[in-house]
Design goal:
Layout lengths: L4 H30 L2 H7 L2 H19 L5 H22 L2 H8 L15 H4 L8 H10 L1 E2 L4 E6 L9 E8 L2 E8 L2 H21 L16
Length: about 220
């Protein structure tokens, strides 16, 4: 074998390897559009996904409260985290992931959606090879076991959400969804409002006890 074939074969092998997550992405997108909850459950690491979304919401709430003094800001952030994690635990089911990824907006979250959401077709959909190629070109391989993919691949950054696939047990699984800027802001506003209500309700035990009624003459 000629020596120059070795680097050529190495490049060809690496290129072939970088295609494997997109074969999985194609199947994942088909499952999303078909509403196949069983297929989604096999392709998602829900534990890491819940923790990631809870961190994103907590960080967004903290950023939105920068105008407050540090102590008040920390109390809001702590309360928001306490609100966000149980929400993620209960809401992140296979059907909830489908709800988020099919058009880029979680209808079940009771959030006001952008007026042109359905016109933009923001979700994870791969109708043809050309679309799959755009996903490949816009992706970012992170070493041998992880790839980050923007969705949709041809939209501005602030309109995209980004998914992370990780290789495990000879298959690529979804481990993270980085929410779009608009969606993260709207969820943070809702979580902050709930956190404020929760915070305002806690001091009830600090209130002075009600006066005992005066004895009757």
């Amino acid at each position: 074998m000629r020596w120059w074939l070795i680097p050529l074969l190495a490049v060809a092998a690496w290129f072939a390897y970088t295609l494997t997550p997109f074969w999985s992405l194609y199947g994942f997108a088909a499952a999303v559009q078909a509403g196949d909850a069983a297929a989604i459950e096999q392709r998602v690491n829900f534990r890491t996904l819940r923790l990631s979304l809870a961190r994103q919401i907590s960080a967004a709430v903290k950023a939105d409260s920068n105008a407050l003094d540090p102590r008040e800001r920390q109390r809001i952030a702590d309360a928001a985290a306490a609100v966000a994690l149980p929400v993620m635990e209960s809401a992140l089911t296979p059907q909830a992931v489908i709800d988020l990824l099919d058009d880029g907006w979680p209808q079940g979250a009771d959030l006001a959606a952008p007026a042109n959401r359905h016109e933009r077709r923001d979700g994870l959909r791969i109708p043809d090879l050309g679309r799959l190629l755009r996903y490949y070109v816009s992706s970012d391989m992170r070493g041998f076991r992880s790839v980050v993919i923007p969705v949709p691949p041809d939209h501005p950054r602030h309109e995209q959400f980004r998914i992370r696939l990780r290789l495990r047990d000879w298959g690529w699984r979804l481990v993270d969804i980085e929410l779009s800027d608009d969606l993260r802001r709207r969820i943070a506003e809702k979580a902050a409002a709930a956190a404020t209500r929760l915070r305002d309700g806690r001091p009830a035990s600090d209130k002075a006890p009600p006066e005992a009624p005066a004895p009757r003459p």
